[in-house]
Structures are given as C-alpha cells and as structure tokens.
C-alpha cells in the first residue's frame, strides 16, 4: 500500500503501511536485500547508477545505499516529519557524525549536562584535539543555555528527557534562539521516539536516534539514525558517514523495520507499567524521590504536557539510604530486573549509578529502572521484596 503522500494517518498507522511501493509478491514484510554489490547488464546502466551515489535507487554498493536501509530511512524520516534520514551502524555513529559535522578549529558546543556520556567523551578525547570546546549546562534553565553561547558556538546539543535524571529542556525556545543566531541544534530523541515527541516541529535541525532501543525493541541489533533537512543529511552523509563506513547494514535495518511494527503497542505497555511503578515508589519509605518525566509530581509537568505526547519505560529513583553496599544488595535481590545498560527491549533492567550534577556537586546514588514487557504486578513484587534490603 503506497502511503507516500497521506499525512492524515496517525504515526502508528504509518508505521504499518508507509512504503514507496507494495512489496513483491504481496509479502507483508519488505525484503531483506542482504548483498554488498548491485550488478548491471550494460556499461551504460552501470555508469548511470555510479553517477548517483546519494543512497537512492539505482543502487551501486551497500556501504552507500541499499533498498532495505533506504526504506527504513524514509520511514523514520516520515515519522519525524523530516525531509531525510540516514541510518548508521550505531547510535554513537549518529552522534559522532553530528558532532564532527559541527567541528572546526576553535568551534564551541553547548550541551545538556546529562546528555549521553559519550558526547562528553567524544568532545574531550577527540574534538578537543581540533580546538573544539564544550560547555555543559543544566538544560532545565533555558537562560543558562542562552548564556553559555559564544560567538564561536556552532551547535547546541539537547537530550530531552536527559539521561539518568530525565530533565526536560524547552526545545522550542532553545531552537528559536539558536536559529536566529545561525547556530545548529541537535537532539537525542531516543527516549521519546517520534510517537511521543517530534523535535523538528519544535524547530530543531537534527534529530538523533539509537535504533537499538525502542525502534528495534528486541535487544537484538545495534544501529542509529539522523533526521533533518535533506541538505544537512546529504552533507553529513558525504563527510561523516559514507567515508567512515558508518552506514547501517541491511540486516540490522530489516530488524528495525520489523521491530517498528509493534512500536506503538510496546511503548504504551512500557509507559503504563513504568508510570504505575514510579507512582508506587513515590509512596515507599525507602525512596527519597522518583525521577520520571511523566509523573504529575514532576516540577516540569507543564513543559512535559506542552512538548511531549507521552513518556516511556525508563526512569530513576533516589534511595533514602545513600550507602553503596545496601544498594548493591538491593540490586542483587532483584530477580525480574536484570542488570544491563541498553534499555528499550522486552526485558526489565536495573542499574546503580552515582551522579554529580552541577546543582549538587557532592553527588548522590540513584537506581535507574527500565520497565519491560513483564506484568506490572510481578515487577512491583520483585521491587518490594528487594527494597527490604535497604530498609
């Protein structure tokens, strides 16, 4: 079913039906083109194909473009409301490409202080060698973001909600400020997905995803994506993806396409379970506070309702006990929450982390939870039993 031009459909319906053309033989699943090379019968057709290396048909080599990867890119772009998308070999490949695109000697980047840790690592260990500097700010304070900007600022990098503490940034206000000054904006939208937040509609230039999380949804692939205006995506593809070999391979792309079929129902389940657990944890005497963007108690509730259409399965809580040993006992007492970092799949996860934010530099321990697809009551029982370890 060709849904190329129908913008009236909901995102969940577009996921199921959006293609440029019907799959061959009436198959409901798009084919996996698991090949590196594309062959042509004549020299003239080969030269015609070789002259168009943008990743669109006709194809020449899967490092540059592949029909399966191409469909995934068009589908993600459609959901984000973007002109174009480029799928990458990993989420960090997408992040690195965006950062490298902004890098030039003396350039400056402003970022939310709780963005994905590899952003800071990339700037400190790689871009600093080019003279690029990074300023981290508490993104809840929009004025602090504005104040951090310098004449040499090339990029404002957002992540809303942010890693570990799930703080929001005022995306529209920051994007408008940056655009007036010719500064590019980028945001990691992995937590929200296009179903719960559409940053391009709020004015952001580039949207990044780790496809390993919700889009794939089955903990069986590594991949990333960048969405934005076609001229930006083409420039980043030429300079930072094709030459570095960071394009997504066909099989992971096929897995993401498969996983996205159930994105809507999975995300609703994750959100419902996590909100139930987070609300319950707020009432527990062992818990000091719960960090979840969708809670009514969230100090940023008004901003959440203004720029998001829902939350997800990932959140944190700060235990009243701030000693490492009893918190480790709590983690080890969990049976259904396994220990692992890459969330967004079917399994529930729990990790312990100590964070030292700018507003509390002494730091504090928190437990990050991901509510998978298990029954909420079973997960609550698992947490309740484990909390006895830190009473």
Description:
This protein has 391 residues and is α/β, with parallel strands linked by helices. Helices cover 37% and strands 16% of the residues. The protein has 14 helices and eleven strands. The radius of gyration is 22 Å and the shape is globular. The N and C termini lie far apart (57 Å).
How are the SSEs placed, and which strands pair?
Layout lengths: L10 H7 L25 H8 L16 H14 L3 E5 L2 H12 L5 E5 L4 H9 L7 E5 L4 H7 L4 E7 L11 H10 L3 E5 L4 H4 L9 E5 L13 E5 L1 H13 L7 H11 L2 H20 L4 E5 L9 H7 L6 E6 L4 H10 L15 E7 L8 E7 L5 H12 L4
Parallel strand pairs: 2-3, 2-4, 4-5, 5-6
Antiparallel strand pairs: 1-7, 6-7, 8-9, 9-11, 10-11
Strand content: 15-25%
> What would you call the shape?
globular
What is the helix/strand order? HHHEHEHEHEHEHEEHHHEHEHEEH
Number of helices: 14
Major sheet: size, sense and barrel closure?
7 strands, mixed
Mean pLDDT: 93
DSSP, total strands: 11
Instruction: Give the C-alpha Rg.
Output: 22 Å
Poorly predicted sequence stretches spanning 5 or more consecutive residues: none
Work out the helicity level.
Answer: 25-40%
Q: N- to C-terminal separation?
A: 57 Å
Structural class: alpha/beta
- How are strands sequenced across the largest beta sheet? 1-7-6-5-4-2-3
